[in-house]
Amino acid sequence: MIGRLRNLFGDPVLAVLVVGLSLFGVAMVYSAGQLDVPDPGVAGAWKMQLLWLGVSVTSLLVMVHIQTRWLEWVAVPAYIAGIALLAATLVIGTGLGTARGTKSWIDLGPVMFQPAQFANLATILMLARVLGRWREPPRSVWGLWAPVAIVALPMALVMLQPDLGTAMVFGALLVAALYWAGTPIGLMFMLLSPVIGLFLSFHSLLFSIYIVALIVFLRFYRAYLGESVAVIGANLAAGAIALPLWNSLEPYQRARLLVFLDPGMDPRGAGWHLIQSRVAIGSGGLFGKGFTLGTQKRLAFLPEQHTDFIFSVIGEEFGFIGTVAVLVVFGLILWRLTRIAERQGDPFAGIVVFGIFGVWFAHVMVNVGMTIGLMPITGIPLPFLSYGGSFLLASFLALGMVQRIAAEQGKY
Amino acid sequence: MLLAGLGVLVYGFFQTQILRSDTYVLQSDANRLRPIPIPAPRGTIFDRNGRIVAENIPGYALSILPAPRDTIRSTLERLAPILGLTEARIEQLMQRQRALPGQPLLVASDLTFEQVSALEERHFMFPGVYIDQRPKRHYPAGEAIAHVIGYVAEISEAELARPEFQDYSMGQLIGKTGLERQYERRLAGRPGVRYVEVDALGRIVGEYMPRTKVPAVPGEDLRLYLDLDLQEWIAKIFPEGMRGAVVAIEPKTGHVLAMYSSPGFDPNALVGGADPAYWRELNSDEGRPLLHRAAAGLYPPGSTFKLATAAIALELKLLDPNAVMPIPCRGGMQYGNRYFRCWESRGHGYLTLAEAIAHSCNVYFYQVGIQIGLERFLREASRLGFGRKTGVDLPSELEVAGSFPDEPGWWRRRFGYNATPTEVLSLAIGQGPNDQTPLKMAHFAAALASDGRLPPPRIAVDSTPPDPEEGINLNISKENLAHIREGMRRVVSPGGTAYLSSLEHWELLGKTGTSQNSHGKDHAWFIGIAGPKGGAPEIALSAIVEFGESGSRTAAPLVAKAADYYLRRKYGMPVDSVQTLREHLMVGRPAPWAVWQ
User: Residue A37: which of B3, B28, B199 has the nearest Cβ?
Assistant: First the structure.
């Protein structure tokens, strides 16, 4: 019976967890619409979410029937289509929600969808196709050019929207895919070191210590000379452009980063989201104020309560018990993904599953982290819980791929 | 990696929701709960007979909760058509909001029922707007009592800045003038606080019950010595369209029985903020209706002051009341290089004190003044209190220091020349640099009606009785007082200046006066005391009618009719509008007490 289910459906535990969490998400979107002064735009959102969940579950059932091989074949056209869509978004896109001033969405009349959510799936497939053909891991940073280029192109297009949060998700999926493809940790570090250099450059002493440490590391790792020069050069360049880059950020982006460091700086403006979210979660205490009864939410202090800050509503209404329960469910979902990835003989399939793991993990960490100020505020949604049809659909498409891969395990 | 990441999140939530939860619960309450003051009902004010002078009736007030300025402005603009707010009024309110951004902004405290229902219907159009029922001050006697009672209105920024009102907050009502101001602390009570729940836009969502509300402490009631019926009677008999004042004081106690000032205003129209047009009208009227003439109107006392001159001379034992002055009145007398006239150009001949008072002979009192001498006259008059306020329990008196020169150097300071000894002649007959209020003169008359001693006047029953030392002490013997009173009796006797104001049932004593007025017709004065025939006086009065020309024609009948009304009611007699001898003659009713010479 289990075997038959597995053949048909992949990992039933994963499916139950995800569908259960999504139904809980619909309930939370309903609660988010329960305000003392009703907002017609939010009050009916749960019905839309339920409808989208139906569409998503249907597409999951369709995806389960698509063979993994076909996914590998469709990777290139899907990637090209994804890039084209992201480029088009820059021209015809509109803003929404927290990211009102950006061009991240395409308005299709009755529905809005965010191309980046689908482009990162295509990017995962493309990465898996390229990395899956590695016979042995590369010995130098130069060997990583192809995967870096595959991710850099859509990432740059998303940056231009600009959508920092989603761009960070592309970074996360690159790291996840490279890791799963067996890239040596040393090379990964060399690749990522300029990002570290970028942040440390704001403190000159820390930056100096870091560069020295980097040289020591390269010496002991026995990196190639050209490679070492390139890595150090990239780090120094990162340090040098940090300030101009900072100045080139939009004022709201800068404000969000500064507010991340000190939310009290502008309590009515940029700090408002974080302060109100923290107050909502904190006032929930151990058991919460009860379903639909959160006062921060009811009285509209909590912004974007049905989308980016849905987790704050959970925290306010179900307390610490609720937040831990939801995080445990996310942990179980992610753990099932790693389990499926581990059992794959096929490198392509493994990289796809672990890439999806990377995307979801990044979404959970960044979204949940920002509600209590552990992460800067970026407009990225919480998988299965945040209101938003296109992201739910994209997540279920990804789940469909995972389930198919899990289902095929027995056959090969 | 996965466990570490989720572990960090769980720890973060543990910190937020368990360790620091209390802080955030407080913050969430502060977010959504707004304190709203509950106005305390003011104490009721009763007159001496228990009639209501000031009471509270239900009223509706509209306020806006603290919010960003733009929000408040747009709310005001949406309210404007319903409340009839002008652009200027909106600017004024915005200014007030700027001054105290953290406090609810009181927009109107006098909503009609129609306005209330119109607003309640469109509740959600007006974020942060709340209407509460609050007691509204009402003065049943209206204009008749206006100056004494004053009125209440919103505390001004200037008042808020004063240390004595530091516990007040914007929008709170405060007594602006009169007794409402004088007894503010007793009447006001203490406002309470309740909490309402608001949403992020400041819209009120509901009353927040769990937090205990602090109930308002009602103000204490106040009882007056004032007789509201008498006050209204005076308002009724005061000559229509004329300006002036009437004050009635009970002898021996100094209790103020009536205090009327004309023209008046409607205190009910000023409660909680006047209509700007009405306020402009009151302030631009050349009759100055807001001026409390009884307590703050300064007039040269004219011949009524001759009683003071007599009292001073008797007190100094300079005057033998039965003797005549060395110089007979021949229509005037020469003093120094100047000829001083009597008002009677035919002259009065030789007169005793009582005769001099009865005929108001200037020449007699010139000589009294000369005997006293300028310096001594100034000192003694000041000692009798003519240079200072009476100490009545009204704030409006504070603005006025009774105007009387305290010493000869005053002329140099004021006019730049040295006083000549002849100044005392003018002062002795109530002219010269001497201005007194009707209250002061009534108080003086009441001292003459007592034993020459009288505590400061009091309108309200206060727990702390006034210090008698601050009152008047004429320091005069009963015998000498009787001589002055005899003079006053003759004023209202056949041949006296005010005989036509004599009364059937009561003995009225008085003194007419004319205060010379450089702006037009002279002001008419009369001060009088009255009581049962053969008994002690029970009421003392003063009346001034601006441009009334003759004290005997306009001021004396006011005093006579007010005294008659008061005494008839006191002794249970029916009130009659035909009271004075003149009125009896006019309507052709017999006047059995009249004696014709």
Answer: B199
CA-to-CA dists, residue A240 to A155, A195, A236, angstroms: 22, 12, 6
What secondary structure does DSSP assign to A119-144, as a single string? HHHHHHHHHHHHHTT-SS--SSGGGG
Nearest CA in chain B to A337: B2
B228-267+292-587 classified as CATH 3.40.710.10? yes
Instruction: Give Cβ neighbours of residue B449 (< 8 Å, ≥ 6 apart).
Output: B251, B529, B531, B536, B537, B539, B540
Per CATH, B36-223 and B228-267+292-587 having the same topology is answered: no
Give the whole-angstrom CA distance, residue B77 versus residue B89.
11
Q: What is the pTM of this model?
A: 0.67
Q: Are strands B45-46 and B222-223 parallel, antiparallel or unpaired?
A: parallel
Kindly identify which residue of chain B lies nearest to residue A333, measuring between CA atoms: B2
Catalytic residue among B63, B109, B303, B501: B303
Angle formed at CA B534 by CA B528 and CA B539, multiple of 5 degrees:
30
pLDDT digits (tens, 9 = 90+) for B222-247: 999 999 999 999 999 999 888 999 99
Whether B303 sits among the annotated catalytic residues: the reply is: yes
CB contact under 8 A, A36 and B206: yes
CB nearest B17 (choices: A285, A334, A335): A285
**For chain B, what are the domain ranges?**
36-223, 228-267+292-587
Instruction: Outline where A289-381 has alpha helix (H).
Output: 295-298, 310-342, 347-371
Chain A residues whose beta carbon lies within 8 Å of the beta carbon of residue B197: 36, 295, 299
Is B6 within 8 Å of A37 when comparing Cβ atoms? Answer: no
Cα angle B97-B98-B102, degrees, rounded to a multiple of 5 = 65
Q: Which residues of B touch A282 (CB under 8 A)?
A: 16-17, 20-21, 23-25, 27-28
Q: Could you give the dihedral angle defined by the CA atoms of residues A238, A242, A244 and A250, in that order, rounded to the nearest 10 degrees?
A: 120
| Tens of pLDDT, residues B307-332 | 999 999 988 888 888 888 888 998 88
- List pLDDT tens digits, range A214-269: 889 888 888 888 888 888 888 888 888 888 888 887 777 777 777 666 666 656 66
ipTM: 0.80
**Cis (ω within 30 of 0) for the bond into A162?**
yes
CATH of span B36-223? 3.90.1310.10
Q: Which residues of B touch A323 (CB under 8 A)?
A: 10, 13, 17
Q: How close does chain A come to B215, measured CA to CA in Å?
A: 26
Asked if B12 lies within 8 A of A324 by C-beta distance, the reply is no
Contact indicator for B335, B345 with CB cutoff of 8 Å: no
Residues in chain A closer than 8 A to B2 (CB atoms): 331, 334-335, 338, 361
**Which of B18, B27, B205 is opposite residue A36, by nearest beta carbon?**
B205
CA distance A204 to A408: 53
DSSP code string of B371-402:
HH-HHHHHHHHHHTTTTS----S-GGGGG---
- The confidence score (pLDDT) of residue A127 equals 93
